[in-house]
Amino acid sequence: MIKVTLSVLVVIFLASIFAPILTPYGPDDINLDQLRHSPDMHHPLGTDNKGRDILSRVLYGGRISLSVAVVAAVISMGIGLIVGLVSGYAGGKMDTAIMLVVDLVLAFPSLLLAIGISVILPPGIYTVMIAIASVGWASFARLIRGYVLQCREAPFIEAARVIGCGNIRILFVHLLPQCMPLTLVMGGLKLAGYILTEASLSFLGLGAQPPTPSWGSMISANRIFIMSAPWMVIFPGLAIAVTSLCFNMLGDALRDKYGLKLTG
Amino acid sequence: MGERASPEAIANIRKELNADEGIFAQYRGYVMLLLRGEFGRSYYTNRKVLDDLMSKFPHTLLLAVSAMLISVPAGIALGFISSIRRGSAIDRSISSLSVVGLSLPVFWSGLLIMLFFSLKLKMLPPSGTGDVRFLVMPALTLSLPAIATLARVSRTTLVDLFGMPYVRTARAKGVAEWKVRLNHVLRNALIPLVTVVGLDFGSYLNGAVLTETIFGWDGIGRFAMEGIIKRDYPVIMGCIIVGTVVYVLINLLVDILYHYLDPRVRLYSSHD
């Protein structure tokens, strides 16, 4: 199952990366002779209300949606790793204070918080990355902190201290690599959610601005045509659903394989 | 205001919004407003945001509660069936379906539901606020991811419980299997499940913004969406604050409910 999921994901990523080669039309090429054309040989997924090819837009949209989700995940992981490492290793008041902030962030309904952030900053893909990451880091931080608490008293850390390693060295050379597998599995699971959040924010008009296509904004712009030209909405949504499904299944499979318990 | 506003008019608005004061003075002004229980006025309609929120909140609550009424029994039932038929084809298909349910963007599944019920079957009105006919589709849409989450969590919880020694004891002393399943296992599973339902309330709020927008349901979510489109900051702030407060209150309620469901859980640790 992992193989199937992985290959679908690879296909999705490759198709987005090589969108300019794969598509005969540009994402913004307007063709007024072919408005809201149903899927056929020339336009496999049909065209939208400006005659733009849906397939091209879905592939180009994938570049936006995937890169926003991946970058947001990398930022979240980075911040979460550092905060979690420091919090778990330092312990005491520092730990209490950091966990208070983490709980505070986790106490917000995530999409509302992300909406709040994307409203303050000018709309665009960077804002969406920041919005997702500023909510996302907290769950990584909590997970890593819990793991560091377990590792902190392990013999290998004690040994490192005995041979004279400083705190910084223990943190980044000894503890950090220990946390990587857990972080990556969690990242895989979270990516599914980030794809959905990115799509939701774009759907709300807070993401990539027109004419740049992203999966969420395509659905948002085309939803008034759902009755007359459903393909304009169905295919971008299918792209979101399949990608998110693959990440979910991959995350589940990895979690089961390594027997990890992920909460928070 | 428009592009050709007179300097006086601009000055008036600036004065009204306290735009000439420093950012901290402005923030203090907003906090004072909040402390008086106000959210200010909408930039566009000039109506009090609080009044609008009060009139729209019951709609959102109705939608969220209806969605819960669908998702809680359905989710737990699916998880229960999965757990007693563990490893079977039914279990596997329920598990796969719930991953799918988690992966669907609600605004898209909502549109598909609308396409099916309104266009193909012509059974329900596509959008609007009103009686049950208007409520069915948004509630169904909102409940889908929640059903999926609950089905997954309740399956895991129930499978764990079925392996407990006390279940073997019950079976060994000859308790009927249906009694073991319902009274011994399902009942004990309720405690963790209440938490999940409560914590998941945030996803109802998140989903409400999207679902209400699609189905034209006149609640806080759609209000927020309109605010976002028009950059109507008092409206956006009001919606986010109300949403957050409700979410935190629900979490508190879950903690208290915990105590009643399981008297072993103490709200204060014993040495306090």
The top level CATH class name of the largest domain in chain B = Mainly Alpha
Largest sheet of chain B at a glance? none
What low-confidence regions of chain B span 5 or more consecutive residues with pLDDT below 50?
A: none
Share in helix of chain B: over 70%
CATH architecture of chain A: Orthogonal Bundle
**Count of strand segments of chain B:** 0
Task: Please report the total strand number of chain A as a whole number.
Answer: 0
Shape of chain B: elongated
- Given as residue ranges, the uncertain stretches of chain A (5+ residues, pLDDT < 50) are none
Mean pLDDT of chain A: 83
Q: Tell me about the biggest sheet of chain A?
A: none
Q: Strand-residue fraction of chain A?
A: under 5%
Give me the strand/helix succession of chain B. HHHHHHHHHHH
Would you give the CATH topology of the largest domain in chain B? MetI-like fold
CATH level-two architecture of the largest domain in chain B: Orthogonal Bundle
Model description:
With 264 residues, chain A is mainly alpha-helical. Chain A is built from 10 helices and no strands. Chain A starts with a helix and ends in a 6-residue tail after the last helix. In chain A, helix 6 (125-152) runs antiparallel to helix 8 (167-203) and helix 7 (155-162) packs across helix 8. Chain B is mainly alpha-helical and 272 residues long. The longest helix of chain B is centred in the N-terminal third of the chain and has 36 residues, at 49-84. The interface between A and B is large, with 35 and 37 residues.
Topology of this structure?
The complex is a heterodimer of chains A (264) and B (272).
Chain A: H1 2-17, H2 19-22, H3 54-90, H4 92-106, H5 110-120, H6 125-152, H7 155-162, H8 167-203, H9 215-222, H10 231-258
Chain B: H1 7-16, H2 23-35, H3 49-84, H4 89-103, H5 106-120, H6 132-162, H7 165-172, H8 177-199, H9 201-215, H10 220-230, H11 233-261
Keywords:
heterodimer, A: 264 residues, mainly alpha, MetI-like fold, 0% strand, B: 272 residues, 2 domains, 11 helices
